[in-house]
Amino acid sequence: MVKYFIRRVLQTIPVLLIISFIIFSLVFVAGDPVALMLPEDASFEDVENLREALGLDRPFLVQYGSYVVNLLQGDFGESFRFNQSALPIVLDRLPATIELAVAAMLVAIVISIPLGIWSATKRNSSLDLLATGGAVIGKAMPNFWLGIMLILLFSVTLGWFPVSGRGTMLHLVLPAITLGTGIAAEMTRLIRSSMIDILNQDYVRTAKSKGIHDFFVVYKHAFRNSLIPVVTITALQTSTVVGGALITETVFSWPGLGQLLIQAVNTRDMAVVQACVFVIAILVILMNLFADLLYRLLDPRIKYN
Amino acid sequence: MTKLLEVMDLKTHFHTGSGVVPSVDGVSFDIKKGEKIAIVGESGSGKSVTSLSIMGLVGSPGRIEDGKLAFEGKDLTKLSKKEMRKLRGNEIAMIFQEPLTSLNPLFTVGNQISESIKLHQKVTSKVAKQKSIEMLEKVGIPRPDKIFSSYPHSLSGGMRQRVMIAMALSCNPKLLIADEPTTALDVTIQAQILELMKDLNEELETSILLITHDLGVVAEMVDTVMVMYAGQIVEHTDVYTLFREPKHPYTKGLMDSTPKVHMLDEELVSIEGTVPNPLSMPKGCRFHPRCQFAMDKCVSEQPELMELNDNHKVRCWLHEEKEVNLHDLVKS
Amino acid sequence: MSSAQVNVAAENGEIINKEAKPFLKWARLLLKSKTGTVGFLIVFLIVLVSLTAKWIAPHDPAAINPANMLLPPFWMDGGTAAHLLGTDNLGRDILSRIIYGSQVSLMVGVTSVILAGIIGVFIGLISGFYGGIIDNILMRLVDSFLAIPNILFALVILTIFGPSVITLIVVLGVTNWVSYARLVRGEVLSIKEREFVKAARSIGVKNNKIILRHLLPNVISSFIVISTLSVATTIILEASLSFLGLGIQPPTVSWGGILSDGRDYLATSWWLATFPGVTITITVLGIIFLGDWLRDVLDPHSQGRS
């Protein structure tokens, strides 16, 4: 098992290399940063000197090589807005984003597990219709709009929660619900269809034939089995969830990666943008690894060779 | 022998979107203590639904419409969910066709066997484990303490079915329902499993209700046979009489389509046609569209299950006036 | 058709279907599914609205009218029938802006999905055909794209190249090709394994020819389903980007843009942010319903799974 995970971790290296290549190429194509760095009346010679000093006159691949070497040292370049190295700025914002994502995940789990199971066990009941209908509407609603509507209702009209910012638990409620609803919608659908599938399995009938109470048939024998596909597919959607977090943060002025990223994008602070992309990609890859681990813990049938 | 289970005029219907399917349509029989009895039929004949009805496991949209299931005097159809659960796995146990899929892949063999024992006998985990290992040993599993803690996927099909049997018999049930227990297994394993069931029947005096489509299995296992067709019993007799002298054309058809070792030179004959669509059962005898002996009466009137003698019942107009030998009928 | 005839038709469905024209067959299949019918009607309506926007919009979506600033919808105090859904901070008619906004949302959604399909099919074909190291590299490329959230990737590209409709279409196309590539690659690999392909190869027939001939019928239904559902997610993505100010730029009207404008007036004029959001939700809902129905009809294996 340890071997398997070492291999999985090694597999992420080419992925990170490809990401770095894509990002570098994009920035390269985007054009010369020198023009932005020098005053408008700088002479041609000044420009050339600066290019040479920054190593921008070297061939593409050489530049890429030194770029990768810098990345390995955690050097994503200087943020000209903050006048400091980009990575610490990004890492500084990371806890806020993780806090939001964890809270949203909790909201999603609390909503989707009971709802998915109930609607699967009571198919075509009014509860089932409500759950499946709710799930599809939740999927169809743009995340940011749901956030705005929640602000409109609970902050502006009712005044229960702050409109924006981070600090208290109250601040966390609306963003977590906003992001959690989208995830819950998808997970409810998944759990429902997976449970329906599992409840028709022979071993569920066996469990019933042993005289086990329906509750334990559902929660002991069926639910754990139904989680296997749910974990796999949810893991594949980590990047969608993180994407949702970025927008949710913007709506609620949540001081996480998303907000930082949008500011960096608007000011064309490329070092910060690049550092954000890498940190988020690593986050997504780690989440996928974690889901893989969970999946293997859940299912004893999987072998490691 | 005393009657363990008496099934009286059982009707289990499925209410589907396109109409009512009478999967079991007025079935009556009884099982005595220690008896081995079989229900034979093609898929869709209602044999499995009959067994699930006894277990109280007919799922929606199916429902027991009518009839009585008297188990030691108690009518199973009248029991509460809780009382039924107490009986299930304890006094009536069941094993299924696919040992591959009938065990939960996420729990160890031991967990699944001791689950029953703990539930019905209210013993500690330690005692339950001991009992489980004993049961595994009894069904002929080598190194039972090792198998106890392994997962189903690491066992062979035959071993899994042994585990299923150990699980089913762990609470000394009075009745064991075996739904096609050997269909999914290799021929040599089949024989072993049947032998095991026979031995346990003798040792524990568990009555066995065997559900199968395979007359070969029937011949090897049971005392009494019922042949089901389209939700009804069409013939009911002891196993020797059935093989010597089948009275229903359907039974005869089934036999002619089963290969036998001593009939190498004879041709296998399959029954023409297919099982009728349960949504539009033929009028008259349900078998008449496929019956080589069909008469006018068979098309218009449905035959009752007629008693030829104490131990032979048949649902066929041929025998209305006097008993007819089907073998002679073919020759003439 | 009278109800008696309908019953007969239902009973003899098989025979009728063979005789009926394809159009009628599809219509009958559609009417069988409530959500499918609703989805189709919504999509049909939105397409119709966007095609006829010029004629059915009550006002010029860009017409500024300071006299009518922030009018509420018609049923509220101060609302008028001239501006059914009210007006925005510049006195522009919300309903007209939503009607015109449908044009760009649908256009961007559909064209970028087509682009994604072309890229994805191409990469999937190459990956499946050649296998080995090329396949390995392309699949790592797929992994890379899966590790970067679509919206993040889109933001980066839009930052570098600047927002415009063309950039947006390209960006959304480039971020969405992965599912097509996986579908086509998987199908190519499975065709390659089939006996007749091996046999044909052994007598010297080129792989490519066989695979192309057998690929299309096998992927076409999944392709349609993926595309339909992709249009839905793309519309949301486009709205998100426009909301962030990096998608469709004024003066072009987009749903995300109207929503973004309305955000500043949440406390006083709720309708600005509400109606475009409702429109997006209903549109996406319609497309999802249609897509789910298509999957049930085209791919019998997945029936009942959703």
From TrEMBL, chain A:
The keyword Transmembrane helix is annotated on this UniProt entry: yes
GO biological process, alphabetically ordered: transmembrane transport
Location of the protein in the cell: Cell membrane
Key words, A-Z: Cell membrane, Membrane, Transmembrane, Transmembrane helix, Transport
Pfam families: BPD_transp_1, BPD_transp_1_N
GO cellular component, one term: plasma membrane
Domain (ABC transmembrane type-1): residue spans on this chain: 94-291
Principal cellular location given in the protein's record: membrane
Statement: the UniProt record of this protein carries the keyword Transport: yes
Transmembrane segments: 12-31, 100-121, 142-163, 169-185, 227-252, 272-295
UniProt family annotation: Belongs to the binding-protein-dependent transport system permease family.
PANTHER family to which the protein is assigned, alphabetical: DIPEPTIDE TRANSPORT SYSTEM PERMEASE PROTEIN DPPB-RELATED
Name of this protein: Glutathione ABC transporter permease
Automatic annotation (TrEMBL), chain B:
ABC transporter domain span: 5-255
One of the GO biological process terms: peptide transport
Membrane topology, from the record: Peripheral membrane protein
Keyword field: ATP-binding, Cell membrane, Membrane, Nucleotide-binding, Transport
Keyword Cell membrane appears in the UniProt entry: yes
Keyword Transport part of the UniProt annotation: yes
CDD domains: ABC_NikE_OppD_transporters
One Pfam family of this chain: ABC_tran
GO molecular function, one term: ATP hydrolysis activity
Family matches, as SMART domains: AAA
Ranges in a coiled coil: none
Cellular localization per UniProt: Cell membrane
GO cellular component: plasma membrane
PANTHER family, A to Z: DIPEPTIDE TRANSPORT ATP-BINDING PROTEIN DPPD, OLIGOPEPTIDE TRANSPORT ATP-BINDING PROTEIN APPD
Family label: Belongs to the ABC transporter superfamily.
Protein name: Peptide ABC transporter ATP-binding protein
Organism whose genome encodes this protein: Jeotgalibacillus soli
UniProtKB/TrEMBL annotation, chain C:
Subcellular location(s) per record: Cell membrane
Protein name as catalogued: Peptide ABC transporter permease
Predominant subcellular localization, coarse grouping: membrane
SUPFAM superfamilies: MetI-like
Domain named ABC transmembrane type-1: residues: 102-291
CDD domains: TM_PBP2
Membrane topology: Multi-pass membrane protein
Keyword Oxidoreductase annotated: no
Pfam family, one: OppC_N
Annotated Gene3D superfamilies: MetI-like (1.10.3720.10)
Species of provenance: Jeotgalibacillus soli
Family: Belongs to the binding-protein-dependent transport system permease family.
Coiled coil: none
Keywords, in A-Z order: Cell membrane, Membrane, Transmembrane, Transmembrane helix, Transport
Keyword Zinc part of the UniProt annotation: no
